[in-house]
Design goal:
six-stranded mixed β-sheet; four-stranded antiparallel β-sheet
Length: about 110
């Protein structure tokens, strides 16, 4: 059974940073392109960043480019999202997945506030 577990969220300061992690079990996500998504109440999940299976290629939502860095450690079956220069509008629940092919995890809440 595939399980995605996101962690690393919390309260961040405007201008600060957070590093999110997504650990996969039950599947070798090393073979899959992986993405991070964000969701705010009342809205659909929005894709923020994607990374190829080897980590050699990354794509970012244009509005987020420059503030996010997606990376992965296939040996640990884990994908990361480094969030810099946090803004209040980054407040959301963050999820990882591979094109929605696996059951969604519980997500990790990021709240940016002073």
């Amino acid at each position: 059974q595939v399980q995605l577990v996101e962690s690393g969220g919390g309260l961040g300061q405007p201008g600060g940073f957070l590093r999110l992690s997504c650990a996969a079990s039950g599947v070798a996500c090393s073979r899959a392109d992986m993405s991070w998504y964000r969701q705010v109440p009342g809205k659909e999940r929005e894709l923020d960043a994607s990374i190829s299976s080897t980590g050699g290629s990354t794509i970012y939502l244009v509005s987020m480019q420059g503030r996010l860095t997606i990376s992965r450690d296939n040996a640990k079956n884990t994908v990361y999202l480094q969030m810099n220069s946090l803004k209040s509008e980054d407040t959301a629940v963050y999820y990882c997945n591979s094109q929605s092919r696996w059951p969604w995890g519980q997500g990790t809440q990021v709240t940016v506030s002073s």
